[in-house]
Amino acid sequence: MNAAWRARLAMTLAAWLAAFAVVMVLLALFGDLLAALPMAARAAVISGVLVTVMVNLVMPRLAALISRWTGAPRPGTASAGRPLEHSDQGSVRR
């Protein structure tokens, strides 16, 4: 199993476990308040908080931890000290 595949698998599993933990905390803290809302409103509130917490708090830290553990470079970082270049079409070149 190569390092990139191992890093992707580790990131997927860690993100799922983190999302599960965030949802459990939200339900434990606000489950009674959310129970009065219709299901679509509950889903909107929980998914909105989940995405906000995951993108801004959990995933940056998780990406750093996983990259140290697997030895794979973090997504969006340059390898071998070369900066990333963005083309006009939105793709990234090294």
Describe the structure.
- With 94 residues, the chain is mostly helical.
- It has helices spanning 3-35, 39-70; strands at residues 85-86, 92-93.
- It is built from two helices and two strands; from the N terminus they run ααββ.
- It has a two-stranded antiparallel ribbon.
- A hairpin with a 5-residue loop joins β1 (85-86) and β2 (92-93).
- The two termini are 25 Å apart.
Can you summarize this structure?
The chain has 94 residues and is mostly helical.
Kindly list the characteristics that best describe this protein:
elongated, two-stranded antiparallel ribbon, mainly alpha, single chain, 69% helix
Order of helices and strands, N to C? HHEE
Q: Could you tell me how far the N terminus lies from the C terminus, measured between alpha carbons in angstroms?
A: 25 Å
Counting DSSP H or I runs of 4 or more residues, the number of helices is 2
| Overall pLDDT score | 81
Strand order of the largest sheet: 1-2
Spans where pLDDT lies below 50 across 5 or more residues: none
User: Number of DSSP strands?
Assistant: 2
What's the helix and strand layout?
Blueprint: H1 3-35, H2 39-70, E1 85-86, E2 92-93
Antiparallel strand pairs: 1-2
